[in-house]
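Feature request, filed as a ticket because there's no other form

It would be nice if the structure record came with a short human-readable summary line next to the tokens. Right now we just get the raw output. Example of a typical job, pasted below so the devs can see what we mean:
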Amino acid sequence: SRVDQKSMSKIVERWTKSGRSKPKEFMFDFETQLAIVKANLSTLRFYGAAQGDYLRINGMLTGWMALATKISRRTFCNPDTEVRDFFNDILDILELFGAPEHTFVKLQHLQAAAEDEMTA
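Raw output as currently delivered:
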């Protein structure tokens, strides 16, 4: 369950050639993180309901790209339904990567706070 160093080197090289400083650890933008995952589908371990189902994994990764595109734009007026969809998509991605339970708890607290704001 490792990222291939050759693919990572290529991504870092493209990143720095575009004038950006090398990020610490895995702190790339969403699109770059997705490119890393896609380049390493065969070496990464996935979890949850999609484990072993590469068609479903690819569908979730496509959803991740759509989410990354939407939230990368500076917008302050996403509709409530879209915000709710963001949380659901994020939960699916966290499950796919086997995120620890405390990450889910924190996201659920954030989701509840956002829901309170949307219904106030």
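Something like this underneath would help us a lot:
DSSP finds five helices and no strands in the chain.
The CA atoms of residues 46 and 97 lie 5 Å apart.
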